[in-house]
Specification:
The complex is a heterodimer. Chain A has helices at about 5-35, 40-50, 55-70, 75-80, 85-105, 110-140, 160-180, 185-215, 220-225, 235-240, 240-260, 265-285, 295-300, 300-330, and strands spanning about 145, 145-150, 225, 230, 285-290, 295. By secondary structure, chain A is mainly alpha-helical. Chain A has one domain (about 5-330). In chain A, the strands form three sheets. Chain A has a two-stranded antiparallel ribbon with strand order 1-2. Chain A has a two-stranded antiparallel sheet with strand order 3-4. The radius of gyration of chain A is 20 Å and the shape is globular. In chain B, helix 1 packs parallel to helix 13 (about 400-435), helix 6 (about 180-210) runs antiparallel to helix 7 (about 215-250) and helix 7 runs antiparallel to helix 10 (about 315-345). In chain B, strands 1-2 form a two-stranded antiparallel ribbon. A two-stranded antiparallel ribbon of chain B has the order 3-4. A two-stranded antiparallel sheet of chain B has the order 5-6. In chain B, about 70% of the residues lie in helices and about 5% in strands. Chain B has 15 helices and six strands. In chain B, a hairpin with a 4-residue loop joins strand 3 and strand 4. The longest helix of chain B is centred in the N-terminal third of the chain and has 43 residues, at about 1-45. The chains are: A mainly alpha, B mainly alpha. At the A-B interface, helix 2, helix 3, helix 4, helix 5 and helix 6 of A face helix 2, helix 3 and helix 13 of B.
C-alpha cells in the first residue's frame, strides 16, 4: 500500500488556491473600494489594514502556479497557454497595484494620485482577469495531443463575463467585510454600507452563475443530479450541504449586521466563498484541466511528488503557523493617527 | 508566424527576467546589510546604526516590492510562453522551484511585514529576528533558483522518458548539479557587491555635501571593506565558474572566448567583433598562445573551438563574448576601487579625497550592469537550448501566436517602464536626501500613518519636517 500522492497534491494545490482567493481576495477587494472612500485619510487607513500582509497573501498565488507546475506539469502546460491573455493581464495589473503600496507613500503632487488610481485600477483589472481565468477554466480547455489547441479568446464568453463580474463583487464583499473588522468611525460605517450592497449583489451573482452553469454545462448539471430525464434527489441531497453552507454564510452576515458585530460578517463571507469554491469543485473534479486531464493524468512523476511532499510536510505547517502569527501581530483596529502601534 | 512568436517570447523572457534580477541582486545584499546594521545597533547601541537601518529599510521596501511583483511574472511565464519546456522539465526542476516558494518566498513576504510595520508591535529582539529571517529567506531563494537554473545548464541525475519528459533519478545530483556550487557563490557575492556599490555611492554623494556626517562615513567604510574583501574573492569565484563551464559547457566557453577553431594553445582575444557568418573575429586584439594559461590548462591541452559543433548549435557569439567582457571589466574596476579605498583609508584620507568619492558614485550602478551581463553570458551562452544539449529553445515554446505574445510584450514594456522609472526616481530621491536628515520622530510625522516606521517612538516636541508634497493629500 502506498500513499496516493496525486490526490494529496490535488488537495495541497486546492488549499493554496483557496487560501489565495480568500486572502488576496480581501486585499484586492480593498483596492476596488478605493474610489468609494470619502477622503485620502480613509484611503490611507484602508491601505494600512492590508500593507503588512498583502505580500504574504500574494505568495499563495505564486505557490498555486509553481506548485501546479511541479505537481501537475501537463495541466500547467495547457492551462497557461489557453488562458494566456487574462494571465498576462493579471500579472501586469498585480505589478501596478503591488508597487503602489510603497510608491503611493513616496509620491508627490502628481505621483500620489497616479498610484492611488493604479492601486484601484490594478486591483480591479487583476480581479477581472482572475474571473476570466476561472471562467475559462470551468468552461473547459481544448486540448489535442497533450497541447492546448484552442483559440486565443476562448476564455471570453458571456458566461466568463458573468463569472468575472461575480468575482469582482465577491472580492469587494470580502474587502468591505475585512474593513468592517479593521476600521472605526466613518470608515467603518462606509464599510458596513459597502458590505450590505456587495453582499446582495454577490448573492445574486452566485445564484445567476449557478443557474447558468447548470444550463450551459450539462455535464456539471449531471454532477448535481439534474438531467433531462429527471432529478436525482439523492445526489442533490448529498451535495446540499455545499449550497447550504453558502446560505449559512449569508445568514451569518445578516446576523452580524443585526448584532452590530465587526467580525461576524467577514466570517460569513468566508463561508460563502468556501461554499462557492466547493460548489465549483463538484462541477469539475477530478479534472485539473477541464475536461482534458484529470489530476491523475496530469500528475508529475511519483518521485517528484514524493520529494515535494517531504519538503511540504515540514514547510507548509511552518508557513501556516507564522502566517497566523503575523496576522495576530497586526490584529485589531487600524486608526488614522498613531494607529499602527 | 511561429518563428516570430518564438523570437518575441524569447525577447519577453529576457526582458522580464533581466528586469527582475536587478531587484533580487539588490535585495539579497541589502537584507544582509540591514541584518548586520540592526545587529550592530543592538550590540553597540550606537545611534548611527539605527539611523542607517531606518534609512536603508525605506529603500529596501521599494526595491523588494518591485522584486516581488516582477517575480510573480516569472512563475507564470514558464507556463504561458514555455509550456513545452514546463511540461517536460517540471518533473525535475518543479520541486526545486516549489521549495523556493515554500522555503523562501513565504518567509520573506511574511516577515517583511513585521520588519516594516512591526517596530512597535514586537520587541527589538523579535524585530531583529524578523530581519534575519528575511535575509535568510533571500539567500534560500537564491539557493533554489540558481539550483534550478544550473540543472538547465548542465543537467545531471536525470533520465528521459519515451514521451520526451525528463525524470529525476538522483535528487542530490539534480540539486547539486555540476555548475551549481560555483554559480551560487558567484551570484551571492555579486549581490553583496552590487549592494555595497550602491551603499558606497549613496554615502559618497552625502559626504561630498556634508563630509562630517557620521552615518555616511560608517557606511562608506563598510562598503569599501566589502569591495576590498569580496571583489578579489569574486574574481576567484568567477574563475572557478569558468573552469566548470570549460568542463561541462565547452561550447559556451568557445563562444565566450570566440575560439573559432579547435587547437592548442588557444589565443586570448581581448577585444574585437565576432562575426558568426565569417567565422572570425573582426578587428580582434588577440594575444597568441596565452588562452590556455588564462584558462588554467597546460599549453598542450586542446581547447575546442566553435568548429567542433554544427553551426545550428552555436549561441550568438558576439553577445556572449561582449557580455562576458563587460562583466569582467567591471569586476576589475570594482577591485581597483577597493584597493584605492583601502589605501586612502590607511592614510586617513578616505572621506576627503573628492576623486574617490566621485569614482564611488560613478561605480554605483556598475554592480547591476555586471550582474545582468553575467546572466546574459550564462543564459545566452546556453542557447539554442533551454536544457543544455537536450531540449532546444524552439521546441520549448507554448502554442501561442504572434498576436498574443506581441500584446503581452507591449504590456510588460509599458508597465515595467513606468514602474522602473518611478521606482528608481523615488530611490534616488531618498538617496539624495541621505540618512539622518530627519530624526526618527520627524520620520514618523513625515510618513503617512501606518507606512513603514510610522510606529516608531513619536516625540511631539521634535519638530516634524514634513514634506510639503505629502501634505497635499489625494
Amino acid at each position: 500500500m502506498s500513499i496516493d500522492l496525486p490526490l494529496i497534491w490535488a488537495g495541497i494545490i486546492a488549499l493554496a488556491v483557496g487560501l489565495y482567493v480568500l486572502l488576496d481576495g480581501f486585499d484586492l477587494g480593498v483596492g476596488m473600494l478605493f474610489p468609494f472612500a470619502r477622503s485620502s485619510e480613509d484611503r490611507d487607513v484602508m491601505m494600512n489594514t492590508i500593507a503588512p500582509v498583502w505580500d504574504g497573501n500574494e505568495t499563495w498565488l505564486v505557490l498555486g502556479g509553481t506548485g501546479m507546475m511541479g505537481a501537475f506539469p501537463l495541466a500547467y502546460g495547457v492551462l497557461m497557454p489557453a488562458l494566456y491573455l487574462p494571465v498576462i493581464l493579471m500579472l501586469g495589473a498585480l505589478i501596478l497595484r503591488g508597487v503602489a503600496f510603497e510608491f503611493r507613500v513616496h509620491g508627490g503632487r502628481r505621483g500620489r494620485p497616479f498610484w492611488t488610481a493604479a492601486f484601484a485600477g490594478g486591483s480591479t483589472a487583476a480581479t477581472l482577469a482572475q474571473g476570466f481565468v476561472l471562467g475559462g477554466f470551468i468552461q473547459g480547455i481544448t486540448v489535442k495531443a497533450g497541447q492546448f489547441a484552442g483559440g486565443p479568446f476562448d476564455w471570453f464568453t458571456p458566461y466568463t463575463v458573468l463569472i468575472a463580474l461575480g468575482l469582482m463583487s465577491g472580492y469587494a464583499l470580502l474587502g468591505s467585510s475585512w474593513l468592517m473588522m479593521k476600521s472605526n468611525d466613518a470608515l467603518h460605517g462606509d464599510a458596513r454600507r459597502w458590505t450590505k450592497v456587495t453582499a446582495l449583489v454577490t448573492g445574486l451573482f452566485l445564484a445567476a452563475v449557478s443557474v447558468a452553469t447548470l444550463f450551459i454545462h450539462p455535464q456539471v448539471a449531471e454532477r448535481w443530479g439534474v438531467t433531462f430525464k429527471g432529478v436525482d434527489v439523492l445526489r442533490i441531497m448529498t451535495l446540499a450541504p455545499i449550497p447550504l453552507l453558502g446560505v449559512a454564510g449569508l445568514a451569518l452576515v445578516a446576523l452580524g449586521f443585526r448584532l452590530r458585530s465587526h467580525f461576524m460578517p467577514f466570517i460569513g463571507v468566508a463561508l460563502v466563498f468556501g461554499s462557492g469554491y466547493l460548489g465549483l469543485a463538484v462541477g469539475f473534479a477530478p479534472y485539473i484541466a477541464p475536461y482534458a486531464f484529470t489530476f491523475r493524468q496530469a500528475a508529475s512523476a511519483n518521485n517528484a511528488l514524493a520529494l515535494m511532499l517531504a519538503g511540504t510536510s515540514v514547510l507548509l505547517p511552518m508557513i501556516l503557523i507564522y502566517t497566523v502569527l503575523v496576522y495576530w501581530t497586526f490584529r485589531g483596529k487600524v486608526t488614522p493617527d498613531v494607529g499602527y502601534h | 508566424m511561429h518563428i516570430d512568436a518564438l523570437i518575441l517570447s524569447r525577447l519577453q523572457f529576457a526582458f522580464t527576467v533581466a528586469f527582475h534580477i536587478i531587484f533580487p541582486a539588490f535585495s539579497i545584499g541589502l537584507a544582509s546589510f540591514l541584518a548586520v546594521l540592526e545587529g550592530l545597533w543592538l550590540l553597540t547601541k550606537k545611534p548611527q546604526f539605527q539611523t542607517l537601518y531606518l534609512f536603508w529599510i525605506k529603500i529596501f521596501a521599494l526595491a523588494f516590492g518591485m522584486g516581488v511583483v516582477s517575480g510573480v511574472v516569472m512563475s507564470y511565464e514558464f507556463g504561458t510562453n514555455w509550456s513545452v519546456f514546463a511540461s517536460r522539465a517540471a518533473n525535475v526542476i518543479g520541486p526545486l522551484m516549489a521549495f523556493e516558494v515554500m522555503g523562501a518566498f513565504f518567509l520573506e513576504a511574511s516577515f517583511l511585514g513585521v520588519m516594516l510595520f512591526g517596530w512597535k508591535k514586537v520587541g527589538p529582539r523579535l524585530h531583529f529576528a524578523a530581519t534575519c529571517l528575511v535575509a535568510g529567506g533571500t539567500l534560500m531563494s537564491a539557493f533554489w533558483i540558481v539550483s534550478a537554473n544550473s540543472w538547465m545548464q548542465a543537467p545531471a541525475g536525470y533520465a528521459i522518458l519515451p514521451d520526451g519528459r525528463f525524470i529525476a533519478t538522483d535528487w542530490l545530483k539534480v540539486i547539486f548539479s555540476p555548475t551549481f556550487p560555483s554559480r551560487l557563490v558567484h551570484m551571492v557575492m555579486a549581490a553583496y557587491l552590487t549592494t555595497a556599490l550602491v551603499v558606497g555611492a549613496a554615502s559618497a554623494w552625502r559626504l561630498l555635501k556634508s563630509p562630517d556626517q557620521t552615518e555616511s562615513r560608517t557606511a562608506l567604510k563598510m562598503a569599501v571593506g566589502m569591495f576590498a574583501l569580496v571583489a578579489p574573492l569574486q574574481l576567484l569565484a568567477g574563475h572557478w565558474s569558468g573552469e566548470v563551464v570549460r568542463e561541462h559547457q565547452p561550447l559556451k566557453l568557445a563562444a565566450i572566448e570566440a575560439y573559432w577553431t579547435t587547437k592548442s594553445p588557444q589565443g586570448l582575444t581581448l577585444f574585437g567583433l565576432p562575426d558568426r557568418t565569417a567565422k572570425t573575429t573582426r578587428f580582434g586584439l588577440t594575444i597568441p598562445a596565452v588562452g590556455n594559461a588564462i584558462e588554467g590548462v597546460s599549453q598542450t591541452t586542446v581547447l575546442k573551438g566553435l568548429d567542433a559543433w554544427p553551426r545550428r548549435d552555436w549561441p550568438v557569439v558576439g553577445l556572449v563574448f561582449w557580455a562576458f567582457r563587460i562583466m569582467v571589466g567591471l569586476g576589475m574596476a570594482i577591485i581597483g576601487l577597493g584597493v584605492w579605498g583601502v589605501i586612502l583609508w590607511a592614510r586617513n584620507r578616505l572621506f576627503s579625497t573628492k576623486a574617490f568619492l566621485w569614482a564611488s558614485i560613478a561605480m554605483g550602478p556598475s554592480g547591476f550592469l555586471a550582474v545582468i551581463c553575467g546572466w546574459v553570458t550564462a543564459e545566452a551562452g546556453r542557447q539554442p537550448y533551454t536544457v543544455y544539449g537536450l531540449l532546444r529553445t524552439d521546441h520549448s515554446m507554448s502554442p501561442v501566436g504572434f498576436g498574443q505574445v506581441s500584446s503581452s510584450l507591449t504590456l510588460f514594456l509599458v508597465v515595467y517602464a513606468i514602474v522602473f522609472t518611478v521606482g528608481v526616481l523615488y530611490i534616488l530621491r531618498l538617496i539624495a536626501k541621505g540618512p539622518g536628515v530627519e530624526p526618527p520622530a520627524a520620520l514618523h510625522a513625515a510618513r503617512a500613518p501606518g507606512t513603514a516606521f510610522a510606529g516608531l517612538e513619536y516625540e511631539p516636541d521634535a519638530a516634524p519636517q514634513a514634506d510639503v508634497s505629502r501634505l497635499e493629500r489625494v
